[in-house]
Each structure stands twice: as structure tokens, then as C-alpha cells.
Amino acid sequence: MFKIRRNASIAIAFFVFVFAIGTFVGPYNQGQIAVALTLFIGVLSINILTGLSGQLSLGQGALMAVGGYGCALMMINAHLSMWLAIPLSLIASALVGLLLGLVAAKLSGPYLAGTTLVLALAMPTVANKFDSILGGDTGLSIDTGMPPTWLSKVMGDIAIEQWNLYVSLPFAALALFFAANLFTSQSSRRWRAVRDHESAAALVGINVERTKISVFVISSAFAGVAGALYGLRGLVGPSVFAISLSLSLLTGSILGGLRSIAGAGLGSVIIVFLPDWIGKVIHPFSLSDQVTNYLPAFVSGLLLVLTVVVNPSGLAALFAKIFRFSRVKR
Amino acid sequence: MQTFLTALFTGTSHGAIYALVALGLVLVWRGAGLINFAQMGQAMFSAYIASTIINHHINYWWAFIVAIIAGGALGGAIDVLVIRPLKKKSGSSILSSPSMRDAIPVIASLGILGILQSAAGMIWAGEERGFPAPVSTLGLSIGKRAMPFTRFDIFVIVLIWLILIATTLLLNKTSVGLAMRASALNMEVARLSGIRTRSIRTLGWILSGSLASVAGLMVAPATNVSPNSLDLLMIIGFTACVIGGLNSLWGSVTGAFILGLTISFINIYDAPGDVFLGIFAILIAVMIFRPSGLFAKGKARNV
Amino acid sequence: MKFKPMTAVAILAVGALSFTAIPAQAADPGVTDTEITLGMQLPQTGAASPGYNKVDDAMRAYFDYVNSKGGVYGRKITLVAKDDKYSAGLTISTASSLINESNVFAMVGSVGTQTHSAVIKDLNRRGIPDLFVNSGNSAFYTNPSKYPTTFAGLGTYVVEAKILGKYIKATYPDKKVGILYQSDDFGKNAIQGFTTAGLVFTPGKTAAGFIAGTQGSLGITSQLKQLQDAGVQVVIIASVASTTAIAALTAKALNYTPDKWVVMSVGSDATTFQTILYTKKIMPAQSAAMLAGIVSASHAPSPGEATDEYVAAFKKINDQFNTGTDKTWDNNVLQGMNIAYQTVEALMGTGKNLTRKALINWMNTKGSTLTSAALAPVGFSSKTHEAYTGFWIGEYDATAVLKPVGASRVVYTTDSAAGPVTISTFKRPAISADALPKAA
């Protein structure tokens, strides 16, 4: 009980903190923060699946796609408001996660990685197969709409990007709350046991397969909400949920820290803002287009390799060690 | 009937290329215990080097040799610069979990892939370059009958079968091959019996890098050379390993031919849009019934 | 200290209120007395970039030329181009950067259909002019009440397909016609146009689709084999330029020699065709021979028509002012400069008092008078924002230049719906001596 109260306070503090920052920055950065909040939920799904239960998935982007398309269909065909469609979209992705989990729970490391990778590749083509419903290549156009008039009256002019932030923020805070509860729950001990020593866990009586499946379902639910929010920026389409998205999420998770929520937050900020930071740093040098267009990807690959070799637990763990926050063995 | 034959031959010649990719992956898997996602990035990089040489009007075969050396060198460099430090690392708590110990190097290879692709972009402006084939890719007629394949198709199939046989001979009949198989089976015991496991592992990386380059050069005439041109090949090659069984060299090769034929037949007899879904369907089917691959050599239980 | 979340919320909310009241903007962003800032998005890197990544450099070359002559009413034009890697998620971020950080006055010449779908609603909502979009997707332009600020930069695929379709029906009435198409909206729009013109395709027999972008990796052998087996004698290609090159080679490998290849303008760039084949050791003379006889359509002169006054003038400006890494003269460069020319004309027409509303208004009322290198008129009006409503039909000669079929060039015109194909009476005005448009 105490833990839930504490996690709720953390989530509320997070909400307030990001809300405050959001009001001080300009519209472009507000939009970037909105993306970071959305991808935060996606990276959380990886931290839960890979960090807590040790299953490496290269296809979280595909599960985001399920959430995105689910949300779009509900808003367009069933005329649901986005506030309903976003939470409901997690049902679609959780279901797909269940189906995936049923197969994936039996697979070990590289086989799981391979299956999820092919899933990430195949998922966008489903949109082209059922293009009358799913919009094919042009995709389905949804967005967060204009901010409600009562809010504009209270706060003055709100940029679209700012409204995107205000829509993503409550879901990010809720995701934080639920993730925090998960990380400190009894179930997570089972998951960690499966991650660290599968045979011992089985001997102790843990149903390894059922555990793996349930983590898949929960992780997919997070991914689905992230996908819905990501699609609400303007388009749900195949190129929005390409393989590069799955790989970006994984990069964010590793760079920030695979096993913590703070790590997920750091990681999502890095993957969103790194190109902007690099742009600012190289601006005075007038490098050719050739170099500037590829530099962010180069730096991010380099960081990934360096992190994995030098500091595999990620930045969050490094900060925790430096400032001695961590007393609990993760 | 003509259509069937075309599907068969296209599938076989593409399958041969996928087999080469799969072979490289299996070598690194057995030698170093990880899936090298950067493999086709190495191939792409060496294809760019080859292309630059060819554009300076140097004979194709010199470029071919340089590309193979470059691919091998890249492989060796990755082992020495990244994998060795990775294997040494033990301090972090994250590596105490076996699933993480397996996953971390894979993630490293993804990072290396990103580095290779963006480096190629920066050096060669991401420009899409055509690439010549060493043998004619135009229609082949024997007598008056038009054949459903080209001279290049035959060249590819023959070359790759030679490579497969040579690799099998290397692994099974030479002492180096024996050392490689021993290290893959049990590194501790191999080291104790005097095998220099670290050098052997580097050798595996070099060999796999060279093989990947050959695959890249074989497919470059069709796909052209650009930083992302070999991504699809990587995924299909990896899927072939998963379907066939990562521990079985010939199993993975078989998986590659199965995939090649499947893609070809789906393309012709069904809609091309279904190709990736078809691959996924086969993968899931195999994973449900044989989670370690079709030709996996029994399930090992660690207690 | 006991943490009281609610208090914090209250304090910060009040604090936020005092900061978010932004005074309304007086003038439009992106326009000062000395400068006009324009923005565009395109795939500069990634799988979809080859060819298209030259468009922004070409546009900038023409703008720099205009700036060297004093600009538009004393305002120099600056073009900010952002790379969206053909990923719709990125397009939204780069658009936001162009709007909020670069403070662009208008977007011009953005490249990419799916990527533009992600931002078109927002651009229109903000009243930002979205001119000369490099996409032939008619849905963007045929409903100005939905997208009031978006104007086309290309003829729609449907228009072109209708015109080509009518030509094929008239010229090859007894031959079997088939189509090789990429299975995205481009391909579907093309099929729609050809079908409206009266051609009939059977999927699995005379219609062979492939996933856009996989013509190299997965190949199109099976597709061409399918057409060959169905006895197709006239093959239409509705795809990009690399597909045309690959199709030519693959057909040769299959010993497939259709009577005619008909390639839609998007896929018909002689320079790309020959460059790809050159790297496969096929010399320009031989690749030009492969190109000869191929039918295509265009709304502008062929980039190889060195005697055309617009081509000559633009080429000169490209040589002198283009600072991009690759400035090889081809269709992409011609199109880029053409769009820049029209942009300058529209800015001049709007006048010294340059506002977004005034520009949109000018496009709606006077936009149809826009001239450029194009040999077909633009159809801009308040009823439709389609650009070139006409195409001329040509055949490649032995020197890789597209020449009109028949004795003289005939430009056909039609709409994106079911209207008939008729002959256009448009006469392109001559270019002025200084290659600058005249104010209307």
C-alpha cells in the first residue's frame, strides 16, 4: 500500500514537472517533449519485457502499430473520442501480445529475436493487404484535434504541439505509475527469477511459460498506448511504424538503462533530442549535407556500442552509482 | 510449366544467396555465441569499396578480391575492437543474467550496423550505385530454347555451392576446422586442451565477414549499392537460420533454400504484397512445432 | 517534508498561466523587409532518396539567381530544406521545426506522398501556404475546401494515366496491354486512370504488382514473367526510374520483347536509366538504344532538349548557381528549378504586401496564369488545386531524348475524374531574356 502511495506521488511529481517545463519551452520543443513522452511509454514496454523478464524483442514497433491502427479505427469508424480510443487501443495490442507470447514463450534468445524482427518487418505490409480498412500506403489520418475551448480560455493561445504534450502527458504519467508498481511488485520477483535463472525458477514451482506470456501481454499493452499516441501526431501508416522505430526504442532502452524507469525516461529523451543536440553542436562548422544527415545515426550507433561495452546497465544506473541512489539490487 | 520453372530457378538462385548469408551467421553464432546483425552492413561497406575500385576502371575481379579482404578485415576488426572487450566485462550486474549475456552482444552488433550504414552514408553520400555482374545477366538460350535462368544465375549457384562445400571441408577435415568446432562446443575445454580460442574466434569472424562480402557482391547487381540495400537480405538470411536451426550449418542452408523458393512462388502464384506475411507464417509455423529450428540437434537442458 | 502534490500543481498552474499568454502575431512569420524564408521537406537520405535529394539544391540554385538580381521586391529568398528520410513520423517533427524554429512563410515543393499525408491537415489548419507539392496524389488537390492552402506541383497520376491510356487504345487497338505497377497509391491511381480511359487489366494475368522499393531486393522477374506468359505485347510501367532500368534488364534476361514499353513520367528519367545501366557495364550508346522507342509522357520539355529556351536558361543557371553535391542535369533538377520559377512568379504576383492570405488568394484567382517551362497549363482555381492538367506524349529517340510522337507536339488535357481527354490549346509564353518571371 505504501508503495502504491509512493509511486502515485512520483507519477504526480513527474506530471507537474513535465507540465511546468512544457510551458517554458517553444512549440517545437513542446512537440519533441510530446514525442519523448510517447516513446517513453514504448521504451517502458521494452524495459518490462527485456529488462525485467529477459526476453529480447526487436519488434515492439509492430505492437505499437497494432495500438496505433486500433486507435485510428476506433476514432474514424466508431467515432470514439481519443480519450476513449487511446486506452481501448491497449486491448488490441495486448491481444496480439498474447498471441505472440503463446509462440514466443517457448523460444530462446536468438529465435525470439528473429521472430520479433520478422514481425516488425511484416506488420506494415498488413496495412497494404487490407488497404480498404487500413488505408494502405496513405494510411489513416488522425490527430489530437484542437485544444478544447475551456483550456484556451484559461491558458491563452495553445500551440498544437503544446496540446500534443498535454494529451501525451497524463498517459505517460499513468504509464509511469503502473510501471513503478510493476517493478516493485511480487510478480516482478517471479519475472526476475525467470530472467536470471530459468531452470531454478521452474524447480521452485514458477510456471515459466505462463510468466513469460503474461509479461508479453503487459508489455504489449504499454506498446499499444504508445502506438496510439504516436499515431495521433498526424498519421497512422506503414512508414510511421517501420523497423527503424523498433530499433530506436531498443537503443533508447539500452542507452538510458534497461532495468529502470528512470532509464526509460533518459533513453527516450536521448533518442528524441540527440539529432537536435548534434545539429546545434555542428552548426558553426558548416559541414556538408552529406555528413550532417548521417551524423546523428552514426553517433547513436557509436553510443550504443560504447554503452554495451563500457556500461551495459545504461546511463541511469551510472548516475545512480555516482550519486549512490541505488540500494536495491536490480 | 515455364512459369513453374522460372519460379523454381529464381527461387534457387536467390536461395543460394540467402544460404551464404545464413552460413556467415552460423559461423559467428557457433564461434562467438551471438547473432551478428552487422554482417550485411559489413557486406554493404565492402561492396561500396569494390564499387569505388570498379569506377576507377579496374578489373572486376581485383575489386572482388579487395572486397572479400575488406569484409574479412572488418569482421576481424569488430571481433578485436568490440567483442573481446565485451567478453572480458563482468563487473556489471546486468551481465549476471544469462539471457542478458546473450542479448547484449546482439545489441552491440545492431549498434555496429548503425555505425557502418551511417559511415557509408557520410563517405559515399548514401548514393545509390549500380553494380556490375561478372557474368552476363542477359537471357540465355541453349540452341533455340530460351532458358528460364541466366548465366549469372548459374554462376551464383555454382560459386555458392563451392563455398559451402569448401567451408564444410574446412570445418570437418582440417585441424583449424576442428579447433573451431571444439571452441564452439565448449570454449573452456578447448582452451584447456591448448587451442587458442581467442584467435580461432577472430578467424571465425574474418571468415564470416568474407562470406558476407561475397553474398553482397552477388546480390548487388540486382539491388544496387546503397547504405540500406542489404537490410532485407540480412533479415531473410537470419530467418533462414532460425527456421533451419542455428546450430546446424546445413540446416540453415536448407532453411535458406526453403525461403528462397517460398518467396519466389508467393511472388508468382500469389500477390507480392504477401511475401513478408508468408515468411512470417512459415517462421511461426516452425517456431510452434520446432522451437529450435527444423534441423536442431536435440534440445539441451541445462540444469 | 511531507510531499503535497496538489499544492505543487496549483502553484505551477498559476505560474504557467502567466507565461502562456502570447500576444497575437502582427505580421506573418518568414517575411521581413529584406528576406522571405521558405521551407520544404524531402527524403535526402534513405531508401527513397536517390534522385529526389537533388530537388532542393536545384530550387535553391534558382532562388540564388533571383537573389543576385535583387530578389522579389528587394526581399532575398532563403530556402530551408529538412530531411525526413521518407518516414511520416519524422515529417511531423521536421515540419514543426520549419514552422516554429525556422519560421517559414510558406512550404514549397515538398516531396513524398505518404509523408505529406502526415502534415497536410496541420499545414492547412495553420493557414500555411503549401505550394507546388511534389506528389501526384489527386486526393490532396481535388477538394480545396478540405485543403485550402495546398497546391500541386505535378500533374496527377490519374490525369497522366488517362491521357496515356487513350493514346494506347488509339495506337495499339489490337495488342494485349498489361501493367507493371508498384502497389501503393501511385500504382493504384495509375490503374484508376488507365481504367477510366477504357483499358482493362486482369490481376494475376495482365496486371503485375510489386511492393514499392523491392524492385531491387526481391526483383521483378516473376512479375515480368507473368506478363510474358499472359502474352502482353504493350507493357505499361507505373513506378520509379530504377524500376524501368531493372525491367529493361530483366526482360532481356527473360528474352521478353514486348512490342512497346510505356513508362509513366515518374519512372521516365533518361539520366537515371543510363546511370544505373552504366554501372552495370552497359555503355551509354547501348543504354540509349535500349531506351529508344519507349513511350512516355511529360508536362514539360525533355531535359535533353537543349534547344528549348527554358531548358537552356535553367541549365545555365544550374551550372552557375547550384552548390549541391550532385548537380547533374536531369528531370529532378529541371522540375526543381521549374517549381522555384513558379514560386517566384507567385510571390511577385502577390505584391509588396506579402501575407499568407494574399498569396493563397492570388493562387486561387490568378494561379492559372502561372507560366513556367511546362507546356501544359496549370489548373489552379478556387475549385481545384491541381497543377498541370495536360501532358504531351513522346517516344525516346536514339540519343535518349524524349521526342513528341507524330510530326509536332500535341498536348492533351483532362481532369482527375471521368471527363474526356481533349487537345489543349495552351501556348507557352516565351521566357524573358533574364529568365525571370513577369508579375501578373
What labels would you give this structure?
heterotrimer, B: mainly alpha, ABC transporter involved in vitamin B12 uptake, BtuC, globular, C: 440 residues, alpha/beta, Rossmann fold, 2 domains, 9-stranded mixed β-sheet, 5-stranded parallel β-sheet
Task: Give a verbal description of the structure.
The complex is a heterotrimer of chains A (330), B (303) and C (440). Chain A has 330 residues and is mainly alpha-helical. Chain A has one domain (2-242). In chain A, 77% of the residues lie in helices and 0% in strands. The longest helix of chain A is centred in the first third of the chain and has 26 residues, at 27-52. With 303 residues, chain B is mainly alpha-helical. In chain B, helix 1 (2-32) packs parallel to helix 5, helix 1 (2-32) packs across helix 6 and helix 5 crosses helix 6 (175-185). Chain C has 13 helices and 14 strands. Chain C has helices at 5-20, 55-68, 88-100, 113-125, 157-171, 185-196, 221-229, 241-253, 270-278, 284-291, 309-321, 331-350, 356-366, and strands at 35-42, 76-83, 106-108, 130-133, 150-152, 177-182, 207-210, 234-238, 260-263, 295-298, 390-396, 402-404, 411-413, 422-423. In chain C, strand 13 and strand 14 form a beta hairpin. Residues 14-25 of chain C have low confidence and may be disordered. The interface between A and B is large, with 56 and 60 residues.
